[in-house]
TrEMBL record, chain A:
Native organism: Rhizobium wenxiniae
GO MF annotations, alphabetized: oxidoreductase activity
Residue ranges constituting the FAD/NAD(P)-binding domain according to the UniProt record: 12-321
PANTHER family membership: ANAEROBIC GLYCEROL-3-PHOSPHATE DEHYDROGENASE SUBUNIT B (PTHR42949:SF3)
UniProt xrefs under SUPFAM superfamilies: FAD/NAD(P)-binding domain
The protein's name: FAD/NAD(P)-binding oxidoreductase
Coiled-coil residue windows: none
Cited Gene3D superfamilies: BFD-like [2Fe-2S]-binding domain, FAD/NAD(P)-binding domain
Xref: InterPro entries: BFD-like_2Fe2S-bd_dom, BFD-like_2Fe2S-bd_dom_sf, FAD/NAD-bd_sf, FAD/NAD-binding_dom, Metab_Enz_Cyan_OpOx_G3PDH, Opine_Oxase_asu/HCN_bsu
Keywords linked to the UniProt accession: Oxidoreductase
Taxonomic superkingdom: Bacteria
Domain BFD-like [2Fe-2S]-binding: 377-429
UniProtKB/TrEMBL annotation, chain B:
GO terms for cellular component: cytoplasm
Protein name: Sarcosine oxidase subunit beta
Top-level division of the source organism's lineage: Bacteria
Matches recorded under Pfam families: DAO
Organism, scientific name: Rhizobium wenxiniae
Automatic annotation (TrEMBL), chain C:
Organism listed in the record: Rhizobium wenxiniae
Swiss-Prot/TrEMBL keywords: Oxidoreductase
One Pfam match: Fer2_4
Molecular-function GO term, any one: oxidoreductase activity
Protein name listed in UniProt: Putative molibdopterin-dependent oxidoreductase YjgC
Lineage of the organism: Bacteria, Pseudomonadati, Pseudomonadota, Alphaproteobacteria, Hyphomicrobiales
InterPro entries: 2Fe-2S-bd_N, 2Fe-2S_ferredoxin-like_sf
């Protein structure tokens, strides 16, 4: 490394999932020493999340067919220690002009950086339905995490509801863990999945795997219902059952646990604070930070990788993490292998094309909005229900999301609308008769997650400091 | 389109003026570059206080004081206005002396203040750290309200009353015609108005310049913190003398804490954000002053863009160059409480040519008193008016 | 009836903690969320209606699982490792609607 390069601040990677790990490895290989900040105590992200202590279970049990990838990434990141600065259990709560504010180890730190790779991942996408806040209803991702990382299951007779590939994967994993899965309820009609089969040449492995999951679950007596609507979780102080309509007929199932999710939603708050431009994505009905094929955002020196900039799965996350790192390296004036960059872009294009077909077979059921009873809780934090949103929009003549937030409190709670924002946008669009792209999106605000008031203040004189 | 009054700016001043004018039977068009109430009017701290204002503002503040309890009749919601009282803390003898001096100055006005010593303060407000606060001045009839609701509420009420509100409609140019004003706004037909109100807040400068009334309008970015909901302990709106930190707790339990300044966003100068140093400094000060906040989490920071004058008094009143033009901007971080009163004053000025509330101290002409020091934008003829003190 | 059931680490080292004053046992490697919900079925009353809540996303995103320790400190159960001697309160409201 030249002296000039040594004088530059370190690159910063936010997130140590597949995208962040691959980006880190790529930067280290180029002779750079990145700082890697991650909220979790160990690397892997949500998909390859590790238990707090070894629990005697094989990686194969934990990660299924993806176990080799998970183990490879965990090993690889362990091998990078000493060549990067790793801050686990650390929250990036603000970004501005080359500085990341982090909460770590009971205090604040300011991390000056030169080059920022955001690999912030995703969470379950939700449309509220009656009863979704009852104890015992967890997100699909949450149902999976508690099984793989904690060795716990969410009940003894479980219903999984929603849509998307994760619905089938989590149900199958629970069945394999020996739990009674009462039913899988998919919002998407079976015809959509049939259409996907026809659209995909040669049935990629993921589709074959899904088909196998369904076959195995059917053998075990798991009931499948497609094209369900008017879903509700029932119970008084905890979940006791699920009811739904299918082909106009209401059905009821008893259960003591439920997993619920409608695909995934990128975590984009930090990209917003970094000043990245967003554009509306028709497929997912959300605004996403824009990136070019080389994973450069609209802000020089800020790169986007993994599901945090658009849902494409763990394999794509690794590739986009590497591609983002190559762009950062190139922008620092260091040499990169253009053949490698081109190959990654080509592979990513293929995955994105496949993903488009996959997502079409599990469409987000935005039509559910029209059927939601007025007292359905939308914002878990501020406890704002459907009527609360509709009435506020109506009374104040609101047509835009940030104004809706101002008058209804939607998105003003601890999660800052990360959970309910999509649903609120659907509600506002439906109640004003505008397309969802026209109602806008909630502006990101620091701190992206709750921050203790008691931490010592950041001293005004402090200039950027690097991690030790 | 032809209206009696065109108003530039959909903040609390513009919307309350629009409503007051409609109530007096005038036709009104209001032009807002973004969304009504989305800037300083809707994102300020929410203090509804007369205490601490320059003495010359108190008559106007008193006029507004009478409007706040009647919000429900006026705009259909109470805007979470609560007359909780407002407490100003002194941390040393110098600050206490300053509070005492202010109380003496306000003694002849309608603002009733109660000075508290250390013991009385500790007894009545035990949630304030007694090591830090040595005394206070208490204004029992001041309070707080929710700016998000009040600003949006005035806009909605104005719309219901028949004001033509154009949001996302920047004004591109204004000019005087023989019979009034021509307003050129983006995406709407030319608007002709007998009267023009410049209530454009931090964006008001060009509309004063257009009538040869360039003034030193600056921008400030107040910085706010809100905590997660907590059990209610903070019973009054509280600030320290000098404004280093101020806080109030709403009935839902969230504490709103202000202090320090944000900064304009690099990618969009019309919006601002708090700074990391600013918010962490204020959080630490707040935890020391209010020990109950020790275990609280902050869940959101925000800032807003506010027009500010060098003498911290707003510009309110008739133009010094152009008849029919009224300015009302530059509230310098203290506009929320007086804004509904300003709306009434504007309506009075337009309908009767005068107002019962003394506003001479806020005349735009105060910036042109000394022609030699006048603004480069072309100082108008010298006004006999003296500068506010 | 607990919400969660263990399928691993049943024989891991026990970790003592208290839940609303009652002595309880978790396992080494538990998050506070797992430790509580393998015993009980709620983590907190919601802030305003005081409905029972027991977390949702398990990945530090939804902020639905904040619990109060007897010291007054507040922690997010899904991302806080269980530690020996923790004293957790899940029944008392933290927030508005109740006098201080």
């Amino acid at each position: 490394m030249s002296d000039a390069a040594k004088d530059r601040a370190q690159p910063l990677i936010v997130g140590a999932g597949p995208a962040g790990i691959r980006a880190a490895a790529t930067l280290v290989a180029a002779g750079l020493r990145p700082i890697v900040v991650d909220e979790a105590p160990a690397c892997g992200g949500q998909i390859y999340r590790q238990p707090l202590v070894p629990d005697g279970r094989d990686a194969r049990v934990r990660y299924g067919s993806e176990a080799p990838k998970a183990e490879r990434l965990h090993r690889e990141f362990a091998g990078l220690q000493g060549k990067l600065d790793y801050l686990p259990n650390t929250l990036v709560w603000n970004l501005s002009d080359g500085v990341a504010d982090v909460a770590t180890n009971g205090g604040h730190r300011r991390l000056a950086h030169d080059g920022l790779i955001l690999a912030t991942g995703a969470m379950d996408r939700i449309l509220p339905v009656p009863g979704w806040t009852l104890p015992g209803v967890f997100s699909l991702g949450g149902s999976q995490i508690v099984l793989k990382a904690q060795g716990c299951v969410i009940g003894s007779r479980i219903v999984f509801a929603g849509t998307g590939p994760l619905l089938y994967l989590v149900a199958w994993q629970y069945m394999k863990a020996g739990v009674k899965v009462a039913a899988v309820l998919d919002a998407a009609p079976l015809t959509a999945q049939m259409a996907m089969m026809k659209a995909l040449p040669g049935f990629p492995a993921i589709v074959l795997r899904g088909t196998r999951f369904i076959a195995e679950m059917m053998m075990k007596g798991v009931a499948f219902h497609y094209g369900i609507n008017k879903l509700r979780f029932e119970g008084t102080s905890r979940i006791e059952g699920v009811s739904f309509e299918v082909r106009g007929k209401r059905r009821h199932l008893a259960c003591d646990g439920a997993g619920f999710g409608l695909g995934l939603k990128p975590e984009t708050q930090l990209a917003d604070l970094a000043g990245c431009q967003f554009a509306f994505n028709e497929r997912d009905r959300v605004f996403l930070p824009q990136t070019d094929t080389a994973r450069r955002s609209s802000v020089p020196g800020v790169y986007l990788a993994g599901d945090g900039s658009g849902i494409a799965g763990a394999d794509a996350a690794e590739m986009s993490g590497e591609r983002a790192a190559l762009s950062l390296i190139e922008d620092r004036g260091l040499a990169v292998d253009p053949g490698r960059a081109g190959k990654l872009e080509k592979e990513l294009r293929k995955i994105f094309a496949f993903r488009n077909v996959l997502e079409q077979s599990f469409p987000f059921p935005s039509q559910w909005i029209a059927d939601l009873p007025g007292d359905t809780m939308v914002c878990r934090c501020e406890e704002i229900d459907v009527s609360g949103i509709r009435d506020a929009a109506d009374h104040f003549g609101i047509v835009e999301m940030n104004r809706l937030k101002a008058v209804s409190r939607i998105g003003m709670g601890r999660c800052q609308g990360r959970v309910c924002g999509s649903a609120a946008a659907e509600l506002l669009a439906a109640s004003t008769g505008r397309p969802i792209s026209a109602v806008g999106r909630l502006r990101g605000q620091a701190p992206v997650k709750p921050l203790p008031m008691s931490y010592a203040a950041i001293a005004p004189a402090v200039t950027g400091e690097a991690a030790e | 389109m032809k209206v009696d009054v065109a108003i530039i700016g959909g903040g609390l001043v513009g919307c309350s003026a629009a409503l007051a004018l409609r109530q007096r039977g005038l036709s009104v068009a209001l032009l807002e570059r973004g969304f009504c109430g989305a800037q300083a009017s809707g994102v300020n701290y929410g203090g509804v206080r007369r205490q601490g204002r320059p003495i010359e503002q108190l008559p106007l503040a008193q006029r507004a004081h009478a409007i706040w309890p009647k919000l429900r009749q006026l705009i259909g919601i109470d805007g979470e206005f609560r007359r909780t009282g407002q407490l100003k803390l002194a941390r040393n003898e110098t600050e206490m002396a300053s509070l005492e001096a202010y109380a003496r100055g306000a003694a002849s006005t309608d603002l009733k203040l109660e000075l508290l010593g250390a013991n009385a303060l500790a007894e009545r407000f035990p949630w304030i750290d007694r090591e830090i606060a040595v005394g206070a001045s208490f204004s029992a009839d001041d309070g707080q309200a929710n700016p998000r609701l009040v600003s949006a509420g005035f806009a909605a009420a104005a719309r219901r009353a028949g004001v033509e509100i154009y949001e996302q409609t920047p004004v591109l140019g204004v000019s005087k015609e023989a019979e009034g004003f021509l307003v050129d706004a983006q995406g709407v037909p030319a608007i002709r108005a007998a009267h023009l109100v410049n209530a454009a807040g931090a964006w008001a400068g060009p509309f004063a310049d257009a009538f040869r009334e360039g003034v030193p309008l600056g921008r400030i970015y107040p910085s706010m913190i809100v905590t997660e909901p907590m059990k209610v302990f903070m019973t009054v709106n509280t600030g320290v003398e000098g404004g280093e930190v101020y806080a109030r707790q709403v009935e839902r339990g969230n504490c709103i804490i202000g202090g320090q300044r944000g900064a304009a966003r690099a990618d969009d100068a019309d919006f601002s954000r708090p700074t990391d140093v600013g918010v962490t400094t204020v959080m630490q000060r707040a935890v020391r002053l209010f020990p109950s906040l020790k275990n609280a989490h902050a869940i959101r920071f925000w800032s807003g863009t506010e027009g500010a004058m060098p003498d911290k008094n707003p510009v309110i009143g008739q133009s010094s160059t152009t008849s029919g033009l009224i300015h009302a901007f530059g509230f310098s971080g203290a506009g929320f409480q007086i804004a509904p009163g300003v709306g009434e004053v504007i309506a009075e000025l337009i309908t009767t040519g005068e107002t019962t509330t003394p506003i001479d101290a806020f005349s735009i002409a105060r910036f042109f008193v000394d022609a030699a020091k006048g603004s480069g934008a072309g100082a108008p003829p010298q006004s006999p008016q003296s500068r506010g003190t | 009836m607990p919400l969660l059931h263990r399928v691993a680490r049943q024989n891991e080292v026990p970790i003592g903690f208290s839940l609303n004053g009652k002595p309880c046992e978790g396992r080494r490697g538990d998050t506070l969320l797992s430790a509580i919900l393998t015993i009980d079925e709620r983590l907190r009353p919601s802030d305003f209606s005081h409905e029972p809540r027991a977390g949702f996303c398990q990945m530090s995103a939804c902020q639905d699982c904040w619990v109060t320790l007897i010291s007054g400190e507040r922690v997010r159960a899904c991302s806080t490792p269980l530690a020996e001697g923790m004293q957790v309160i899940t029944r008392a409201a933290n927030s508005a609607g109740e006098p201080a």
